[in-house]
Specification:
Layout: E1 4-9, E2 15-21, E3 24-31, H1 44-66, E4 75-81, H2 85-102, E5 106-110, H3 111-117, E6 134-139, E7 144-149, E8 155-160, H4 166-176, H5 184-191, H6 214-230, H7 234-265, E9 269-273, H8 280-291, E10 296-298, H9 309-322
Parallel strand pairs: 1-4, 4-5, 6-9, 9-10
Antiparallel strand pairs: 1-2, 2-3, 6-7, 7-8
Helix pairs in contact: 1-2, 3-9, 4-5, 4-6, 4-7, 5-7, 7-8
Length: 338
């Protein structure tokens, strides 16, 4: 008998629903929220309101695309955190109600674990999945972590940011340069025509496998402030070189600690996950390690990089097999916990 899991993701500003049959995605739909662009970042109150408007149509369309009825669903998996509290509450409340109405198990999913387990979705033409144990660099707007993954259920954070995340560094640098939100993808776009060695920025000195990006943002701010005093057109004249230099700096910081993690653990199977895993500079840096024969690299398809419900559904599937279900009294959490 087939196992169908409905996945619901609402941790930030994207409302997503997916249906999975075992490990094959039948539908993965996302409703984006354009309302935040004029504010230069996600406004939590507006995000939660938009989730309320989007969640029923998105789930209805996901079931239609998957061509199954709601009574065929074996369990409802949802993002329980980390994320924005108001956004999480919308998804959590709907998941609880839907599971209760259908009489099926409720499965809570850690958003960061789900990014990692997206690597185990079965796609046509993709038969390469990381073997256990492997390391995963998980990078997004809110988190930057190096995770040792020993099984679908056993993950240990061995390095993480002590302040800002890499994705936030990309977006803040873009904002300083006057680029619209979300700026990270635009930095990536402009970097393709720039010289990555045109401008130098200091690397933070953080012990162990941890990261820091707050100092980098400050150095970029002061650098551009000084340059604009000399030439008001400095940014517009150098946007490609600035983007390429900033991107190279962030990627170098990320790679340096992953290289050290490989050395310390002896694990050379290395995966990439999270929204920033869509960045071309970071993907290229990983593929260089693959080509050199130093690492065996695993990079998810673009549709599973950013926040999406497919990763929630696949995580829900593995937890369903284990009988790891949540109670109706569960509450969302905003900060990461293992």
């Amino acid at each position: 008998m087939s196992i169908y899991i409905l996945g619901i993701e609402s941790s930030c500003d994207d409302t997503s629903a997916a249906v999975i049959k075992e490990r094959k995605i039948l539908a993965n739909l996302i409703a984006n929220q354009d309302v935040h662009e004029k504010f230069g970042g996600v406004v939590p109150e507006l995000a939660s309101r938009a989730h309320q408007q989007n969640i029923i149509p998105v789930i209805d369309n996901a079931l239609k695309k998957a061509n199954i009825g709601k009574n065929q669903i074996n369990a409802v998996a949802f993002t329980n955190g980390p994320g924005l509290l108001g956004s999480l509450l919308v998804g959590t409340s709907f998941a609880k109600s839907f599971a209760l109405a259908l009489g099926v198990p409720l499965i809570s999913v850690n958003h960061m674990h789900a990014h990692i387990l997206a690597h185990f979705i079965e796609d046509e033409g993709k038969d390469k999945h990381p073997p256990f144990p492997f390391l995963c660099l998980t990078v997004s707007g809110g988190h930057t972590q190096i995770v040792r993954v020993d099984s679908y259920y056993d993950m240990q954070v061995i390095g993480q940011t002590i302040d800002d995340a890499a994705g936030e560094a990309f977006d803040k640098a873009a904002k300083i340069m006057g680029l619209p939100y979300p700026g990270g993808p635009l930095v990536d776009k402009y970097s393709k025509d720039g010289n990555p060695d045109a401008f130098k920025f200091p690397h933070p000195k953080v012990p162990g496998l941890d990261y820091s990006f707050s100092g980098l943002k400050t150095s970029i701010l002061y650098f551009l402030r000084d340059q604009l005093k000399r030439d008001p057109d400095f940014i517009s004249l150098n946007i490609s070189d600035l983007s390429a230099s900033i991107q190279k700096n962030i990627v170098d910081i990320l790679m340096r600690k992953v290289i050290e993690a490989v050395r310390q653990t002896g694990i050379n199977h290395v995966a990439l996950a999270g929204g920033v895993s869509a960045n071309s500079g970071l993907r290229d840096a990983f593929m260089q390690k693959q080509r050199s024969g130093e690492w065996e690299v695993y990079i998810p398809p673009f549709e599973y990089c950013t926040d999406n419900a497919a990763m929630i559904a696949i995580t829900g599937y593995f937890k369903y097999l284990r009988g790891d279900f949540a109670s109706q009294s569960i509450s969302p959490f905003t900060r990461y916990k293992e």
